[in-house]
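Good day; I would like, with your permission, to put a structural problem before you. I would ask you to consider whether the tokens describe a fold that such a sequence might reasonably adopt. The full record is reproduced below for your convenience:
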Amino acid sequence: MTQYRDITIPYTAEEIAHVLETCKTFKSFDGNSIGTADFEIFGETLRHKRTPEQLQAYIDYFDMNLGGRLALKDIEGVMNTQSTIRAHAAWYAEICDPNKNGVISKDEFENIYRLMSVQWPKVAGKSFDDFVREADSNKSGDVDIEEFSNWLEEMMK
């Protein structure tokens, strides 16, 4: 039986190295990334407790948006930010803007919405208009990365 870890406690360098080395043993490992076929065992390696709905949301998101792959450098990045809500929200904001224009579009929001809504209950039921109304602190009509990060930080609490 897996003993789940407290995700508010920072990962140590040794834990990160162990997870990255373990990922290299997965059947889907291609030298740089793992595939969604190994996401369940990956979650067990991280000792994260995920519901079947959360696991499927991650698989669907990565299959639809990232070619079904998760790079080891991104695994390391998220493990380094996992210990604080602020850092994790900022990391999440970065992956939600794949075109790197600094603004979260309706399509980008809708692509990540299901994943966010099963991860953080406060997000569930939010429309893109709700998101813009709540997150657009400077009232420009757009939500930039910093505003998204601030909004997500509140949703994660």
Remarks:
- The longest helix spans residues 52-65.
- The beta strands are 33-35, 69-71.
- The radius of gyration is 16 Å.
- Residues 15 and 46 are 9 Å apart (CA to CA).
